[in-house]
Design brief:
Radius of gyration: 21 Å
Helix content: 25-40%
Largest sheet: 7 strands, mixed
Order of helices and strands: EEEEEHEHHEHEHHEHHHEHEEEH
Mean pLDDT: 79
CATH topology of the largest domain: Rossmann fold
CATH class of the largest domain: Alpha Beta
Bound molecules: 3-phosphoglyceric acid
Structural class: alpha/beta
Strand content: 15-25%
Number of strands: 13
Number of domains: 2
Distance between the termini: 46 Å
CATH superfamily of the largest domain: Phosphoglycerate mutase-like
Length: about 350
């Protein structure tokens, strides 16, 4: 039974390691990394197989134990791999998914689909809160749908990011648009994050339901029928898209355009919609058409995946910086956060 899989903050994960004021040294094949954790619990995704040696707290030495296996499955390195193969398998990237904040038609309980409506004030606040929760997670590229509610969510969230890079929507809709939106400073480019807008990530097209009130529609056609249109995998609303049809464009786009970025080590955020993201999560989590029926995404809640060794590892929803300080950071994410701390202090 798949429920809203992302609402348990990572802190509820079965295992994490308490690393208070710890020095954390572990050796990789090509480098050694020294991380200092200041008073927050870290889920490290470590396993003895990853060369984890020991972490030294100020008060003693704690060995990683089997009971401390993390949510992230250790990546096994098959023997006799080429360096490239090994690098590919060892490259890690963060993937953040976020459904847009509340829209004006969400507030009116209208079917929205591909109608392009903006966020409510509450939706703006949700986007800003989401930004706080991902403010320490690296973002190198942003993908949004072509709809303003997703684009507003991405831009508002990034106002909270500690790295302070500027998200810039790329305009490639024509040669002139590409030419007229060029940036002629390499330094400025380095301080920017490209934002790619793609209609393939749009919300599913709700056909003749778009603009109708959800409750009135249920009263008219029956609750079961409307639930079937809204949540089934292969039953479309009248002259609209089923989730399966939405997946055919959204997941194809993810595989063709976004997955290669992750494979190259780029950290990606996708700001999209309830159903286009349900179809992508179905692919990432290998959900069945039955399981996906129960998958619900709230507005404005960021979800973190780690892409490593060609696999997607679900990490839940990042806790806010003010929350109990439980971060399910991988080593790489913890190092990124530490560098931000050093850069900003
Ligand atoms: O398009 C819409 O109406 C909403 O974004 C999602 O609607 P749903 O929750 O009915 O799929």
């Amino acid at each position: 039974m798949v429920t809203s899989v992302f609402h348990q903050p990572i802190g509820t994960a079965q295992s994490h390691q308490h690393l208070q004021n710890s020095d954390f040294r572990h050796e990789f094949g090509h480098a050694s990394v020294k991380l200092t954790f200041k008073g927050f619990k870290v889920e490290t995704g470590l396993s003895s197989r990853e060369g984890f040696s020991s972490c030294r707290r100020k008060f003693g030495v704690v060995q990683a134990s089997a009971s401390h296996t993390s949510v992230a499955q250790p990546v096994s390195y098959p023997p006799n791999n080429s360096t490239d193969e090994l690098r590919k398998k060892s490259s890690e990237a963060a993937l953040i998914l976020i459904r847009h904040g509340e829209s004006l038609w969400n507030e009116k309980n209208l079917f929205t689909g591909c109608v392009d409506v903006p966020l409510t004030k509450k939706g703006v606040e949700e986007a800003i809160e989401a930004g706080k929760r991902i403010s320490n997670i690296p973002v190198d590229m942003i993908y949004t749908s072509a709809l303003i509610r997703a684009q507003m969510t991405a831009m508002l969230a990034m106002t909270q990011h500690r790295r302070k890079k500027v998200p810039i929507i790329l305009h490639n809709e024509s040669e002139q648009a590409r030419e007229w939106s060029q940036i002629f400073s390499e330094d400025t480019k380095k301080q920017s994050i490209p934002v790619v807008t793609a209609w393939q990530l749009n919300e599913r097209m709700y056909g003749e339901l778009q603009g109708l009130n959800k409750q009135e529609t249920a009263d008219r056609f029956g609750k079961e029928k409307v639930h079937e249109w809204r949540r089934s995998y292969d039953i479309p609303p009248p002259n609209g898209e089923s989730l399966e049809m939405c997946a055919e464009r959204a997941v194809a786009y993810f595989k063709d355009h976004i997955e290669p970025q992750l494979l190259s080590g780029k950290n990606v955020m996708i700001a999209a919609h309830g159903n286009s993201l349900r179809s992508i999560i179905m692919y990432l989590d290998k959900l069945t058409s039955q399981e996906v029926i129960n998958l619900e995404l709230s507005t404005g809640i960021p979800m973190l995946y780690i892409f490593k060794g060609g696999k997607f590892i679900r990490r839940g929803s990042p806790a806010g910086p003010t929350e109990a300080g439980v971060y399910a950071y991988t080593r790489r994410l913890a190092l990124y956060r530490q560098k931000l701390d050093e850069m900003l202090h």
